[in-house]
Structure formats: structure tokens, C-alpha cells
Write a structure and sequence with these properties.
Number of strands: 0
Order of helices and strands: HHHHHHHHHHHHHHHHHHH
Largest sheet: none
Number of helices: 19
Number of domains: 4
Shape: elongated
Oligomer: single chain
Length: 423
């Protein structure tokens, strides 16, 4: 007798989402329940096994919501068939499955209450799939090109938000908040448009509020603190950081997210000239990272790690005049950065060049600046260009040397100068 292959639709959807085992899907459903505010819903591996069996049982309502959210497909496309579905679909062997009666209205799935909820239940997941793709593209696509796509995507999300309700609205609002956060990051770090970014962060926080997602709120507020922080406005920075930490407590936040908030505050303090307090906060961040915690970081939290924390520290050590320490820290960061971290590599090379300039080693500084310019040609990053220019200013005493002139020839070539002005 031939062996049944089971619910291949659910298994394929699981694997397409990168969940290689039934236990991985169970864990993802548990995490999604917390993100959606559904409480502590535990789905066992055995339950996943029953759903992937040849005759899967119809999931209960909250499980349907979680499966649709995690796998981003309607429940009917995951190999399930409602017991009240009277449509006759022959099985693989030609047999016609048994059907049950539709339950009473009291047990039916809830319908959108608002008359304006005209979009299908999957609209949030569909929109989120594009948001997730943009998240990955950020590291390789030219910022001006990606920003145009992200901005239009966010405009679409804002329009769709008025046409959704229930879980779909919450999923859509969360993805919209992430899209606006990405747009603000590009505006601030890649294109150096702080005022535009500040307004975008406000819109991102509004969307996070619609989703009732405190961790996204903390991320948005943490990014918004860079705007006054880099301008040297310490009081405004402190206010935004207090708000970000408040939202993080509501999350609850992972150790990585809490350490990132410390790193943000430390960088802002560095810009404001308080290097001692910045280093104290960075030590606290290192302790938080090493201790860890019980909570996992959200999927969208992709811009921070122990290596990135060390990069923050190296820049603060440089600003504080701790040259040997900064060199040790930044060289370790450069060695640990993955190949895909082109933007961060420009920043670290620029900081290392400033370290060598401070150590009165102009040739070594220029060699690092040329590496940074090579990387910048492949991955434009306005923040990285700022670090290169800061290091070049530190080489003023050697500006007539051959090595500095080679850097200037590249830094102020026709193409580089026009490109910088256009951006």
C-alpha cells in the first residue's frame, strides 16, 4: 500500500520561510503570538506533525491567525479544509473527502467590523513580504534607488491601512512602521537628510502605535535620538532616549536591543563631548550583551551585533584621545566584519585612518583612506564619507606629501565630487 505524503502544502510553506523543522515552526508561532498580543500560546511539535499529516485537523481560530501571520498564506493555501466546506475535491487517489456542516454564526470566524475593511485578510502579510525584502536589500542596493522604492511602498501601506481591520490591520501597521523606519534610516545615514528623516521617524512611530508594537516604537525612538544627538542637542537626545527605553521595557526587549539603545546614547554623548559618560554606558552595553537574556530580538532587528557595538566603542575611544585602545578595538572590528557589511567597513576604515593620523602615521592613514574609498565606490554611504573627510582633515600637517595628495586626487576627482554633490 503506498505511503501517504501528508500535507505537503504546509510543509512547503514552512520550508519556504526558512523553518527547517516542525519544532522551528512551533517556536515561530509562539513568538508570533507574543508579537501580536495574543499571549502565551504554545503549539507543540506534535501538533505541527498532526497538521502536516495526510488528514490535518482544522486549526482553531488563534492558531489560524498565527499560521497566516508566520507563513504569509491564507489558511486554505496551507492544506487545510474547513469542516463546513461542502465543495467536493477529489483526493490524490480519486476519493472524495467527507464534509461536515458549517458551524453556527457564533462559532464562525470574525468578520471585519468596519465597512471600509475591503482588503483580504492576507493584505498585511503580503505587504510585510515586500518590507522584508527591502530590509535585506538595504545592504547592497544604492540608497537613492532603494529609498524611492521604500517610500512608494510606505505610501501604499498608508493607503491600505484605511481598508483593513483586525489582525490584518495590525500586521500591516507593523510592516508599515518598519518600512518608514527604513526610509528614515536611509535619509539620515545614507543621504544625510536629518530634518527629512526626523519627520519620517514621526510617521514610523504613528504606524508602530497603530500596530501597538512597543519594540518597534523603541527602535524608532532610538533612531530619532540620533537627529538631535549628532547636532549636539543633549537635552533633546536624553528625552528621546528616555522614551525609547520606556517602550523597550513594555516589549519586553532582548539584550541586543537594550545594548543597542546604550550604544545609541553613547554615540550621541560622544558627539556632545561627554566621552567619559559615553564609555561608561558602552561598558554597560558590553555587560548586557555578554549576560544575554530570555527574550529574542525581532526579525527586523538586523543592524546590531557585538561587532557593531565594538565599532561604537572604537569611535568613542578615538574621540576621547585613547589612541592605542581605539586602534586595538577598531582593528578587531575590521577583522570580524562580514563581507556584506560594506557600509560599516567604510566607517571603520575612516576611523582607523583618523587613529593613524592622531598617531602621526600619515602614510598608514592614507592607505586606510584609499581602502575606504574603494569600498565607498562599491557601497555609497554618506556617513562613511563623513568619516573619510574627518580623517582627511586630521592630515592637514602632511597635505603636501605624496600619499595625502593621492588621497585628494581620489577624494576630489570629477566623478567623486559630482557624485557627492548630487547625493
Amino acid at each position: 500500500m503506498p505511503r501517504s505524503i501528508g500535507n505537503t502544502a504546509l510543509k512547503a510553506a514552512r520550508q519556504a520561510r526558512g523553518l527547517s523543522s516542525q519544532q522551528a515552526l512551533a517556536s515561530a508561532l509562539h513568538d508570533a503570538a507574543r508579537q501580536l498580543g495574543l499571549g502565551e500560546i504554545v503549539v507543540s511539535r506534535k501538533q505541527i506533525g498532526r497538521w502536516e499529516s495526510p488528514n490535518p485537523p482544522w486549526p482553531r481560530d488563534d492558531h489560524q491567525q498565527l499560521l497566516t501571520y508566520v507563513l504569509r498564506l491564507p489558511i486554505e493555501d496551507l492544506g487545510f479544509r474547513a469542516p463546513w466546506d461542502d465543495s467536493v475535491r477529489p483526493g490524490p487517489d480519486g476519493a472524495r473527502p467527507l464534509t461536515g456542516r458549517r458551524p453556527s454564526a457564533a462559532h464562525a470566524l470574525p468578520r471585519p467590523a468596519a465597512a471600509s475593511a475591503t482588503q483580504p485578510p492576507t493584505v498585511g502579510a503580503d505587504f510585510a513580504a515586500v518590507t522584508e525584502a527591502h530590509r535585506r536589500l538595504y545592504w547592497s542596493v544604492p540608497p537613492a534607488t532603494l529609498h524611492q522604492a521604500v517610500a512608494e511602498h510606505a505610501n501604499l501601506g498608508a493607503a491600505l491601512l484605511a481598508e483593513t481591520d483586525g489582525i490584518a490591520r495590525r500586521v500591516l501597521a507593523s510592516a508599515l512602521a518598519e518600512s518608514l523606519l527604513l526610509a528614515g534610516r536611509i535619509q539620515f545615514f545614507d543621504l544625510r537628510q536629518p530634518e527629512v528623516a526626523d519627520a519620517t521617524f514621526v510617521r514610523a512611530l504613528q504606524a508602530a502605535g497603530e500596530a501597538d508594537d512597543p519594540l518597534l516604537g523603541a527602535a524608532v525612538l532610538g533612531h530619532s535620538a540620533f537627529v538631535p544627538g549628532w547636532a549636539g542637542h543633549r537635552e533633546d537626545t536624553a528625552e528621546r532616549m528616555r522614551a525609547a527605553r520606556t517602550y523597550a521595557r513594555r516589549g519586553p526587549a532582548s539584550a541586543e536591543l537594550l545594548a543597542w539603545l546604550d550604544a545609541v546614547e553613547a554615540e550621541c554623548l560622544t558627539r556632545c563631548g561627554d566621552h567619559r559618560q559615553a564609555l561608561t554606558i558602552l561598558r554597560r552595553a558590553e555587560e548586557t550583551m555578554s549576560t544575554g537574556g530570555e527574550h529574542r530580538s525581532p526579525e527586523w532587528f538586523t543592524w546590531f551585533s557585538s561587532t557593531r557595538l565594538a565599532a561604537f566603542k572604537g569611535n568613542t575611544e578615538l574621540a576621547a584621545g585613547l589612541i592605542p585602545q581605539a586602534r586595538t578595538t577598531l582593528e578587531a572590528v575590521l577583522a570580524d566584519l562580514p563581507e556584506t557589511a560594506g557600509k560599516q567597513r567604510v566607517v571603520v576604515l575612516g576611523d582607523l585612518a583618523a587613529v593613524e593620523a592622531a598617531a602621526r602615521r600619515p602614510d598608514a592613514a592614507c592607505a586606510l583612506l584609499e581602502q575606504a574609498l574603494d569600498q565607498l565606490g562599491a557601497t555609497w554611504y554618506a556617513t562613511g564619507m563623513e568619516r573619510i573627510r574627518e580623517a582627511r582633515r586630521a592630515l592637514a600637517s602632511w597635505q603636501d606629501s605624496d600619499s595625502v595628495r593621492r588621497v585628494d586626487d581620489r577624494l576630489y576627482s570629477w566623478a567623486a565630487t559630482l557624485s557627492s554633490l548630487q547625493r
